[in-house]
Design a protein that fits this description.
mainly alpha; 72% helix; globular
Length: 123
């Protein structure tokens, strides 16, 4: 099975990069001092496993939730933890996840990522 990648020249990738740049700029402006921001980002990353672990094993939406937690964590790592308090983040993630499901190869990769994230959870 080959590796699925998103072509950075695609309109979707360009739109996401533009949205992330705007949201990231706001998050950087809102983020606390550099040391505190790094600490928050570290906490966000370390809490990812705990949040994924808290998803119920019988939750029918568990894969989507695990991927969303992963996306939030990666965006916080890249753009700063202040991003997590941006009210537009939820809408951005909804749009990203919807677009990911519209392409069969990407949807399969997202499904595999969800399984991988859930396989590594505690309990």
């Amino acid at each position: 099975m080959g590796v699925t990648t998103i072509d950075p020249r695609s309109p979707l990738a360009a739109a996401l990069q533009a949205q992330l740049a705007r949201v990231g700029g706001r998050a950087r402006a809102q983020a606390p001092a550099k040391a505190a921001g790094a600490s928050q980002t570290a906490r966000a990353g370390s809490s990812m496993a705990a949040r994924v672990g808290a998803i119920g094993p019988h939750d029918p939406d568990r894969r989507r939730k695990a991927v969303r937690i992963y996306l939030e964590s990666e965006l916080a790592r890249e753009f700063g933890a202040g991003l997590l308090i941006d009210p537009s983040l939820a809408q951005l993630l909804d749009a990203v996840q919807q677009h990911m499901q519209e392409d069969s190869e990407t949807a399969a990769a997202v499904e595999a990522l969800g399984e991988l994230l859930l396989a590594g959870r505690a309990g």
